[in-house]
Amino acid sequence: MSSTHRATDATGQPRRRGRPRAFDRETALRQAMEVFWERGYEGTRLTDLVQAMRMNPPSLYGAFGSKEKLFREAVEFYNSPDRSTTTLALERPGPVRDAVEALLRDNARAYVDPETPHGCLVVLSAISYSPESEGLRDLLRSLREQDRDRLRARLRAARADGGLPGSVDVDRLASFLMSVLFGLSIQARDGATLAELDGVVDITLASWDHLVDTARGG
Amino acid sequence: MSSTHRATDATGQPRRRGRPRAFDRETALRQAMEVFWERGYEGTRLTDLVQAMRMNPPSLYGAFGSKEKLFREAVEFYNSPDRSTTTLALERPGPVRDAVEALLRDNARAYVDPETPHGCLVVLSAISYSPESEGLRDLLRSLREQDRDRLRARLRAARADGGLPGSVDVDRLASFLMSVLFGLSIQARDGATLAELDGVVDITLASWDHLVDTARGG
DNA sequence: GTATATTTTTAATGTTCACTACAAAATTAA
DNA sequence: TTAATTTTGTAGTGAACATTAAAAATATAC
User: The domain spanning residue A211 has which CATH number?
Assistant: First the structure.
């Protein structure tokens, strides 16, 4: 046998010294995310978090730092590029209309997923706020603006390559689509069915088609 | 002179015995409403309320009962029929399109009124919630549903008297308009200007016109 | 084995929360 | 005047909040 060996974990990486964690960090983060998603940042108590994450406060603080840091990490997890419905829809190659339809319809479906709280965490979990959590409100607003900016960029790109007529007012159109999208979150949270949300998407897409037609001079 | 006289207040009604209130109840209620509007129910502390209302806690409790009762009264005040932009718009006589345009444009203007917090109190002040304030969340949801139902009724009435083609799907159309309206609240809260919101309204009304035209078989 | 490092559980900590007891103040009624 | 009534300001109350101190537990390193 060779010299002294080091302990390794399942992935072959050397394990840290000391007592090992009794929980999976990502699983716990997902559980925390769902609580924040349902109740919002200020409506969530530490008691709710430790119950959902099945651990005691010191473990939570050891792994995540504070309630606010945990929330920020939960938002990051929710909004990660490979998981964000909006990002995935807008990065989809092909006609811009397909991307916009995916933006609306995939989000609508996600908003009423029976496995998760209804509506979008980024829209719902820190809209009204006390001054202490103003930083979190700003974080979520910047993420909403990021989505809007990505939509604008996608529309501008389409206009540049002929997928959209040059006379289309991209910023106005993006604001309109974001309004509908934000509204879907409220309605999903209020108990709307997928059929209802899809009905809204149908009208929105009909509106898109007509607007593009008109701008083409149809 | 006649027999013993009773004290009367400015409106001629007999004044109550005891030390008179040092504040105007409706003014205080309006001040409380603005705090709730800005910060939401759970984000508002009693300290914030008594500061804004310029009184001490016992006066607040004597006049309004509790934080929750004060919130309910503030919502009632905000949403009173003679003050609710939505109710006023939908009760407006004349073409249904004018009512819908007023619904969107008057609300958009109110949402960015520099004199008040931006967006709609009914949409923003209790969206995410801890179980203790679930009753308030339900109250606001029922008010949102009430507005949607009033819109549906107005559209149905228009369809009945020929103002809308019979083939229009009233419920779907109402959901679409409510989605846009809810979305305007989010965007107003995020700092959108009246011009941006009016742009969204322009597209929505163009969509309305096209939808009605199509249903007419145009 | 012993030392070191990290997480665990238990049990607190100080702060902030909505709310209130109490007595002084201000009014009407007789 | 005196009694009755109501609101006021001061100064609390207990409960719930996010956070942490301390020591036992569990792992690696040597």
Answer: 1.10.357.10
